[in-house]
Amino acid sequence: MQFGPAAALPFSCTMAMRPGMGDNGRMTDILLATLNARYSHASLGLRCLRANLGALHGRSAIKEFVIGQKTEETAEAILAENPKILGLGVYIWNCEESLKLVLMLKALDPGLVIVLGGPEVSYETGEQAICAAADYTITGWGDISFAQLCAQIFAGQAPEAKIIPGIQAKLPDLVSPYGEYTEEDIRQRHLYVEASRGCPFKCEFCLSALDKTAWPFPLEAFLADLEMLWQKGARQFKFVDRTFNLKIDTSLRIMDFFLDKIEKDPDDMPFAHFELIPDHLPDRLKEAILRFPAGTLQFEIGIQTFNVEVQERISRRQKNDLARENILWLGESTGAHLHVDLIAGLPGESIESFADGFDRLVALKPDEVQFGILKRLRGAPIARHTADFQLRFNPAPPYNILSTDCISFPEMQQLSRFSRYWDMLANSGRYALTLQLILADSPFWNFHRLTAWLYARTRQTHAIAHERMVHLVHEYLITERHLDPAQVSDALIKDYRGTGGRSRLRFEDEKAELPLPKARKVKAHTPDRQARHLQA
Q1: Which of helix, strand or coil describes residue 51?
Q2: Is residue 24 very low, low, confident or very high in pLDDT (cuts 50, 70, 90)?
Q3: At a CB cut-off of 8 Å and minimum separation 6, what does 157 contact?
């Protein structure tokens, strides 16, 4: 675990404490902080660190922030706690803002000891300004090493070395982090849990390729933690395990936990997110999945590419036919929400090859296709292909691929815009009927054409309001694709109204009645986006 789980997500200012005081009234000598991508993400990594501080736990606190806040405000909030040591989680999404924060904190309080950790600073530390600016960087797992470093500092025995390799602890020896989730976390935020760490596979675009295997946490203790969270009111659980269905006996025990809750109270259902290996779905697991009601399960499934040569090149083992069968079965036979990943820009894959894989995946009708652009994560083995395939990566975060020997920079820019518009139009669940008209018999190239038109018309890939996008798509389908105006209008009106739109659209009949405001519904545990797909 890299300063807490590498997969543990972001953070936001959630703990309102008296300046300089921990949650038990003692001084906050150790402050654990990070910059989350969104407030809704609660950092599992920070909670792992705090849970394992031992005797120093009472002198510590967690304070989470969101990227985009003013650095001055973040620094002010941290210094108000008057910590002696700051443990800062650094990730690909926050590393630039984290550098600004570290530099400002050092200018304001040179005596503050800043300790970095996280996947972004676990490799290539000698090349990073943030590592030079901080006092210490713990690479790799931080659960034990952070506590040891804090104890050394307080004992006046601070180590001279700035880079400290993290100790990989035995999982049964670690203190569970789930007691660190607050009532506010449980009520308002996504809770991340892990039944195992590591991954046995060697896909070269992923940092998990460096793991030797996957290590399970003690199952009975983990199930007891799930029960504790449930009793406190938790209903949404996101498992960060890279390979949830690796050990089927364990998978079934965890699923049985949720099935038992559903059986006892069908009106109080959970929502659980798991990452599945697409070509490993034995009958026992299928039988368990069939028992879950619609809206209670989400499966994230990594396909990445259907190109066999590319799969072999990046050390990805995947039985494509079996993966295809399993995704079809999940979509046709279960109520699980399917989120399936593809990556553009892999070494040796052309746009034509990616388009073929995209169309094959769309034909399987997953709820969402996550169209990702290859990134060069620090330490990931994908970098070994740089010369042979002319991989040109952005030197700044998020280190996205800019061009390859198969895909030029302008073409890659078009793919990036495709990804953004696809998220707005397809993955949002707002255009179920209209999407069929857009994609027709050639999903990739038809959407590629729409992408070029939308960008030429708007010069925007963000902040396009729902109603404006409806009118843009209406214009495009009629003027560029020459589709029947009545058919286009009918599909867009039904999609717009079905997802809560209440304004009168410009192409609507002026005499058509507008919908009345809907009564505020009781918030369900199924997230809104997933719920829209289930209703489509």
Answers
A1: helix
A2: very low
A3: none
